[in-house]
Records
---
Amino acid sequence: MPPIYPFTAVVGQERMKRALVLNAVAPRIGGVLIRGERGTAKSTAARALAALLPDVQVVVECRFSCDPERPTTWCTECRERVAHEDPLPVMKQPTPFINLPVSATEDRVVGTLDIEKAIQKGERQFEPGVLAAANRGLLYIDEVNLLDDHVVDLLLDSAAMSMNIVEREGISFSHPSRFILVGTMNPEEGDLRPQLLDRFALSVEILGLRDARDRVLIMERNLGFEADPDGFREEWLGKEGDLSHQIEAARQILDQVTYTQRDLLSIAALTASLNVDGHRADLVILKTARAHAAFEGRTSINDRDIALAAELALPHRIKRGPFQQAEITMDDLQEKIEQLQGGSTTGEPEPVPGETESVEKKKV
Ligand SMILES: [Zn+2]
């Protein structure tokens, strides 16, 4: 395998990096769509993220990389195995990076059950697909807009459920399928259907960097990496290790991260005020905010977590409104949250327009 460019050496593109890292902390957020022109480090960053993620503990000889600590998610084979082999042996393996070919078919993605064998010999034979290989890892789909819509739907379902269930003629096989979903597309080559767009939890738009100093930095680092990939990786090892540990620590406390009724109101008021279609965005913002709090080592969310999450959850879901043309920024969102809270936390009824004015005049 050729050496992989370090994630922490990617210059700029902070939103993309944040979206990737938060999905790594909490894959159940449901994936990220990266939209941008060619040559903007999309695939480099995704591959680099997988490479720095901590090794995962798996059941030895399980074809689906089952997590020994989550028996409820085990594949059909591990469930059967544990009856005569308890406890199941475990080992560590690197986080897989799976690149989905654009020509992938449904069978190739979900796997296939050999029905003939089942009928003839009474054996259940399952041929694993991409969803099996991607379990516990990162599934990368380059140019997701060119993939068959039905296949994209399957992938998004699986990312949301963390499980792949294949049923045919009364025979069923299931295995865990919990992965970090990363899709990329170049909007110049056709867009995704709006229904599919909305199913990607987060989206980021990336552009080539305009700051000359940043561009110089990109050149210098690329040249450094090309000249001596191993030496370059060595230089960044410390930073890579720090981020890896931070992600691992965040995963440990993610389930403990709490939120209040006020946080939910902030999210709902924000999405309502921005004309966001549907309700998916609200949950995505909450999940992403929790992942961000965990990433910073906290066990409760705050307004900044919400704003940072909204910045990633909203760009592809706002149809009209003040942000249609301009980019939504974290600062805009945080300001908006504060305004909305100001309006709802005073506890006093809104003055009826005109009425207060006339009362004031009478006093004078
Ligand atoms: Zn298994």
---
Amino acid sequence: MPVSLLIALVLAFGLDAPRGRIPAEDVTARLAMMLGGVAFVAALAFGLGLWAAWRVARAGHASAPVRRRFTIGTRLITIGSLAVYAWIIHSLGWSKLVLANWGLHGWVLIDDLVVFLPYLAIQILVWSGLFAGERALRVGHGTMTGGLGRYLVLRARQSIGLVLPVILLYLARHDLIARVWPEWDRYELAEPLEVAVLGGFVLMISPIFVRIAWPTHSLPAGPLRRRLESAAARVGFKYTDILVWDTGNMMVNACVTGILPGFRYVLLTDALIETLTPLEAAAVFGHEVGHVVHRHLPFFGFFFIGSLGLLSLCASGVESAAPAFERLGRALDVSAGLMNETGQGVVLLLFLGLFFWQVFGRLSRRFERQADVFGAKFVSCQASACPPHVDLDASVCALAQPAQSLTICPVGVRLFADALASVAIHNGLDPQGRSWRHGSIASRLDFLAWLARNPAAERTFQTSVSRLRVGLGLVLSLAVCLSIVVGWLRGGI
Ligand SMILES: [Zn+2]
Ligand SMILES: [Zn+2]
């Protein structure tokens, strides 16, 4: 899930839009400033993309420092895009302009879409700018088919396609219910309940969105399909289909979608199938199976609902600081009400940011490692005396083995590590580059190598992940229960 898109959505719709209108004589100046802001981010993106392309063309290859700088630059531009969009919404008053000045308030979905339009424009310009760099950094690692247009469509489908159905559902519901049942919003727990119900529903039907959003086709019969089917049957993994995700050879990636066993797809990109050996592809497939076997998706769902409980508790806590904020407002000679509202909003946003950065980041990295370990087990021969290594899925009738009882062997670990390394190279990633959600490729490879030398340490690792889950589960369940009690005491429900 593209995190920056979610942040942009929170910026646009999560905070209460300021009411009132912009004075008519100010409108032109503000629009000009807005265009200036959008042009500034676009110029940065084009600058970075062309710089990377020029460096690669001059050196004849993509060197590690160029890759690193391009990655860092891309991240800074993502942050810059969000900052400019926040400025457009909250300082230039874009929502006021759209809703009050132009009278779009109450136009179901149209109003929301226009409020979000500047971010979409920024995003398309940034992708266009980075395109030259992205293409150059992939030189020698499979060719990208198609030009800028295809690239833009792919990126847009990839990031918006998955989130859009959720947003549409949510906003339509929000706008419609506000008309049909206006009292609903007054209930303290209305919002968390909506998010919980909607979140669970979306997780269940997410395979439908994937098929709509991404161009895919069923993996044709052949040695790879036979191998994957045999391995999946061996460990008892159930799925609807294995799909090839057509990215015009732009991405080496895989993913799994759906929480119901009878309705779930595993996707492998076209470039992954082309560049990895069938054994390496099976290891990546195993990583995705690992996410399912360890129930990562439902736990993430629970995590988000629990975080809402925690957030609502914090909101109640911060509310009690209202007199202090109002005093501060009077001392600084600004409106006490405005100071209170801004102060509470900033404290809550800071808390939420810190919580996600630290706790969600750590949980996500642990889960990735757990899936990595499972990927290695998936292609391991289960023999303690390996080598010699036996390829269990080379024959059709391998013995069934429950996923929980699989073990790793050194060759299995090597296969998975090779797969991970070539995914990094083909995606133009810097192996040392840190990733908040996945950890750096180098640290994942080091961990696997260490595990291959000390197979007994796996148990310690699995116990530590279980402890993290149980601890978080307890804290978040408690937060949800407490927030319900607080809501009930206030007479909300
Ligand atoms: Zn993963
Ligand atoms: Zn082996």
